[in-house]
Amino acid sequence: MFTLNGIERFSQDIKKSRFLAVAAPVADEAEARAFLAAHSDADANHNCWAWRIGQAYRFSDDGEPSGTAGRPILQAIEGQELDHVAVVVTRWFGGILLGSGGLVRAYGGTAASCLRQAEKTAVVPSVGVRISCLFSDLALVKARLTAAPDVRLESETFTETGADLALKLPVAEAENLIRLVGDITSGRAEITV
């Protein structure tokens, strides 16, 4: 699975109607709703959208015939193996009816083109871990952990004797990395998963 690195836009004209897709990464449903509200145009005829966050998803046809806008946008998201993504496709009607098939192609195609050109990052499932270690072990622990792929140091708080680290470790490597910290500190580090 992948997610977007930032907001992406794509527009095209189809039979005198203008379609504008705006896509962005979202962390949760509240952020998705805020994104949709911020990027919908009240002066447009339709603001159709879809978002996917893990197993949760929603979509809207916003007045277009049922199944001709929101579902094709969602299929564009799923077709490119994206997660934690919201897309709104705004249509300004140009006077020519596109028919059901034309609407599906227009909304789905605009969303897909927008998502194709966006920069993406692989989504790596991670687990939160807290490590308390002494100052004498801190430099080595940080060096070894940050050298491992997909490890993120979320915060570092200093105590009287050392530091408390909050990290995100990739699920696939978490057990090995925890064992590594235990080994290099000779068991002195306190590790909480």
Which structural traits does this protein have?
alpha+beta; elongated; 2 domains; Ribosomal Protein S5, domain 2; five-stranded antiparallel β-sheet; four-stranded antiparallel β-sheet; 193 residues; Alpha-Beta Plaits
What does this entry show, briefly?
The protein contains 5 helices and 11 strands; from the N terminus they run E-E-E-H-E-E-H-E-H-E-E-H-E-E-H-E. With 193 residues, the protein is an alpha+beta fold.
Please explain how this structure is put together:
The protein has 193 residues and is of the alpha+beta class. The chain folds into two domains: 2-122, Impact, N-terminal domain (Ribosomal Protein S5, domain 2), CATH 3.30.230.30; 126-192, Alpha-Beta Plaits, CATH 3.30.70. Helix content is 33%, strand content 37%. The protein has helices spanning 29-39, 70-79, 99-117, 135-147, 174-184; strands at residues 2-4, 8-14, 17-25, 46-53, 56-60, 85-92, 120-122, 126-134, 152-158, 162-170, 190-192. The strands form three sheets. It has a five-stranded antiparallel β-sheet with strand order 2-3-6-4-5, sandwiched between helices. A four-stranded antiparallel β-sheet has the order 9-10-8-11. β4 and β5 form a beta hairpin. α2 runs parallel beside α3 (99-117) and α4 packs antiparallel against α5 (174-184). The mean pLDDT is 95.
